[in-house]
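Appendix B. One record, verbatim.
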Amino acid sequence: MKIFKYFFGALLFVSAGAFAQEDIKPERKPGHTNQNKFKQLYDEFATPNMFRTGSGAPGPAYYQQQADYKMDIEIDDVNAKLYGDETITYTNNSPDELTYLWVQLDQNMRAKDSKTPLISSSGIGPATSASRATGTYLKERFDGGFNIEHVKDLNGKDLPHSINRTMMRIELPKPMKTGDKFSFKIKWWYNINDHIKDGGRSGYEYFEENDNRSYVIAQFYPRMAVYNDVEGWQNSQFWGRDEFALPFGNFDVNITVPADHILDGTGYLTNREEVFTKEMMKRYNQAKKSYDKPILIVTEDEARKNEKTKSTKKKTWKLSAQMVRDFGFATSRKYIYDMMAVKIGDKDVMAVSMYSKEGNPLWEEWSTKAVASTLKSYSRMTFDYPYHKAISVHAQRQGMEYPMICWNYGRPDENGNYSDRTKYGMISVIIHEVGHNFFPMIVNSDERQWTWMDEGLNTFVQYVAEQDFGEWYPTALSPGHDKYPSRRGPAKNIVRYMGGDQDFIAPIMTKGLNTYQFGSNAYSKPATGLNILRETVMGRELFDYSFREYARRWMFKHPTPEDFFRTMEDASAVDLDWFWRGWFYTTDYTDIGIKEVKKFAVTNNPNENGRQLAERYNMDPNALVYFIEEGDEGYDEALKNGKSMEDLPTVKEYIMDNFTPEQQKNMKKSPKYFYEVTFDKPGGLVMPLIVEYEYSDGSKEKITYPAQIWRFNDKEVSRAIATDKEIVAITVDPDLETADIDTSNNSWPRETKESDFDKFKNKIKD
């Protein structure tokens, strides 16, 4: 039996066994450091300084470098080669003196002597397909690395330089002081890769039918590395997975291609009237006023006709972009080309698609609408999209992003038929890749170091944008879908990963190259974590305000993870260190359950334990309220008598002596049923304790106890419940909000059903 003294608003639990143990001295244990999961992240975070403040905002001394490019590019369509000549002007805005510059040569990842193929484990199984065996053991490696013809200053003098795989160090004639500019020239060429056969984020797809190629071109030029206050030069090698860290700058790029090609890319097309036909210009002007549907600039019939012949003439497309971190373009004679306007804030932005006939009818119907929808959703969640256009390009097996342009997969079969999976996959990848304009093309995080800062944040907003798309374009939803079927975002979708083999899971705060299960680690888990913050921990209003504050503080700048974490707390007044530590810095998982439920009845009859308690603490036994646990002597009688808390004489006296009539009226009426519910946490991850109580009359009540309930005991906590209705069921996390990996312990009375996680494990075992 246990005895409880009742105080209004709380129950003080006193164990009868505690009397005998009180005078025994506890075993003395050694001291320890603070291991509390709610301690602040001072050990993990760098000290705030003049460059980056403790609030997460740029500091008064924040700086960033600038790299401006003037380029002349030509595509040799016959031999699939790219030739380039560029002038780079680099501005040193840092307080440091620079004696050399680092330039990225990402194409060298595909050089014949590249080390990239050698960093992965490989083996030989008992059998494999002939094509796979041929490609693995007999095929000669493609040579796609940069061929640097010269590196010169503006006077034509050679600049000493050294190439280390994907990085080139250029020695400066004299040190660059703060505010100095230095211009130099690089001339190069390389073999363009077939991205279908050889992989890669850019390249061409070959169409044997008419001997044509569609080019999606990026990482095509030597480009400046980032120099910043966090680590100096960001010259980490490009092994193929981690993406890019780049400074902002201005671009003027002239691209020469066959005269029958359709081309678009980053920046304003400055010679549109030279490269467009009169009919294309007429349609373009119509598209600028069309807000509800795309206007075809080049129709499918025209594209089909165009791909059947090859012009021997050339045409130069001129593009100019300001304040962008990179440049990409796409070109082919096969392209269908459409556009529509979308209102963002007080200006119009052009949503654009380029696709071959192989993408239809799917692309003509949904691509540009998905672009427009994405710009509206992301602008609502962050800031108004600042550029004048966003382009979606159809490319088989591709999903990649650059400022104002991206390439996306999703292709019907040869008869134009497609499944729901193909349709939703195409729409989702377009939303994702267009969304990358915000993260990291504008909020310019270091992808080479922190993949999750662009992929994870972007995947989170993608989930919001997908739900918007489903609302705005309900005809895109297939029968049986009342909302868009997002693959990533909801907490329940990350359970299998979170409960997986710990030997193959890394914390989110791991360099992308070194993570297991890259998609789950860099995309799904951070996106799900942010969704949990928005829906369960912070609430939408606080979360959205703080998320927008982060995006606006760091647009066109270089944020770090700490800048994000600090801003989210600074703008919301919500201490989230416990969340960042658990979800981002560890591989802990959520598993919260109901350990035990005890029922009590109330009585005013003294018993032996009560007399001992009163005697020991010199209290009047008649002034105590007694609770008898179910199963103990007197429980059934007390419950049968129907005593409620308010019926007890001692309580009545307390009310009369201490409360005004109005206060008495507002007090909880007649609690008759009392429960002590103990929740345990087999999983290491701290989460809010979400509990639904179901009563005998069929009503339900959901209470969210803040995560701080675990601050003094990381293993288990108890709650005392006083109610005038009998509790018939209790469920933890009834709506699956916390990514709990094992729901078999989430309900009382205990259900014997197999948990989703156990089902998954048993399926794998079978």
